[in-house]
């Protein structure tokens, strides 16, 4: 979790599987549009790498129409890769 003074700015999460590490970010709506998303991503990734020393890729799966997240991850050093496809079951 990231804080500014006593206010929660947002969270960054990492989830590893056999082939990659997925990351996701959620920002407090009060801090959207202030350039903090990319800073949170950069700091979170840097800390994760320092603590875990992973030997796999870190991947962010972003919905196509989520322009703000795309820009934040690109600004943090992520590059566009191939698209992810999700199988939707009847429950989805």
Structural account:
The protein is an alpha+beta fold. The chain has one domain: Aminopeptidase (3-Layer(aba) Sandwich). Helices cover 28% and strands 26% of the residues. It is built from 2 helices and 4 strands. The chain has a 4-stranded mixed beta sheet, covered by helices on one side. A hairpin with a 3-residue loop joins strand 2 (7-16) and strand 3 (20-27). Helix 1 crosses helix 2 (67-75). It is globular and about 35 Å long.
According to DSSP, the number of beta strands is 4
Would you identify the regions where 5 or more consecutive residues have pLDDT less than 50? Answer: none
The CATH topology is what?
Aminopeptidase
Q: What is the name of the CATH architecture? A: 3-Layer(aba) Sandwich
CATH class: Alpha Beta
Which range best describes the helical content: under 10%, 10-25%, 25-40%, 40-55%, 55-70% or over 70%? 25-40%
Number of helices: 2
């Amino acid at each position: 979790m990231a804080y500014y003074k006593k206010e929660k700015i947002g969270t960054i999460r990492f989830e590893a599987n056999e082939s990659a590490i997925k990351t996701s970010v959620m920002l407090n709506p009060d801090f959207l549009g202030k350039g903090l998303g990319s800073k949170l991503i950069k700091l979170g990734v840097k800390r994760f790498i320092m603590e875990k020393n992973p030997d796999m890729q870190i991947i962010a799966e972003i919905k196509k129409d989520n322009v703000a997240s795309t820009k934040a991850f690109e600004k943090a050093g992520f590059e566009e890769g191939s698209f992810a496809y999700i199988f939707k079951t009847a429950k989805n």
